[in-house]
Amino acid sequence: MDIVFNCTNKTCAQELAVDEAGAGTEIECPTCGETLTVPEPTPENTIEAEAPPAKVPGSTKAASGKISVLPKKEKSFSVPVHTGPGEVLIKKPKPTLEVAAKEIDKKIRLKTIRHSECQEVGKDKFDETVTDFLQRIGQENIVGVHSVSYSHFDVTTRQVLSDFGLMIMFRG
């Protein structure tokens, strides 16, 4: 007769079978390593041994009985079923300015170019940056060009600095 019981570790719950001669002895669960005490045989936890249980590598031997590991119960998981279209995880990028300028349904867009972002090691590239942008969108797509003055806190000098830029409205 074999005593059948489950590991007391809630995450493991491996079902074990031990010969009834091993009742009351301490064993290690071959799945999780938890130290277990083999319960006393009762009519609810004993089964008739059909064949000698096979020794599983890594399992231990109780006093005069063998420990065998019964196959772990399969757990079934449910997969959610959606009735509508799923969420878009990868969004299509916005078209480039050249492509957007050629589209029939052109949206009004806004581009702000700040003077401070066009400074390179003592060279002022503001005019070149604005000219390049205006040439890319094309004169026929320009709705308006507006100057902008603003102040910002410079963390390196710890001062409030004034600067300027352009706000360009265009179709594309």
Describe this structure in words.
The protein has helices at residues 97-102, 126-137; strands at 2-6, 15-19, 26-28, 35-37, 46-47, 67-69, 108-114, 119-120, 123-124, 142-154, 159-171. It is mainly beta. It has two domains: 2-69, no CATH class; 97-171, Alpha-Beta Plaits. The protein has a four-stranded antiparallel beta sheet with strand order 5-1-2-6, with no helix packed on it. Strand 3 (26-28) and strand 4 form a beta hairpin. The longest helix is centred in the C-terminal third of the chain and has 12 residues, at 126-137. The radius of gyration is 38 Å and the shape is elongated. Residues 53-64 have low confidence and may be disordered.
Q: Specify Rg, calculated over alpha carbons.
A: 38 Å
The helix/strand series, from N terminus to C terminus, equals EEEEEEHEEEHEE
User: So what's the CATH class of the largest domain?
Assistant: Alpha Beta
- Spans of at least 5 consecutive residues with low confidence: 53-64
| CATH-defined topology of the largest domain | Alpha-Beta Plaits
Number of strands: 11
- What is the first-to-last residue Cα distance? 82 Å
Order the strands across the largest sheet as they lie in space.
5-1-2-6
Strand content: 25-35%
CATH architecture grouping of the largest domain? 2-Layer Sandwich
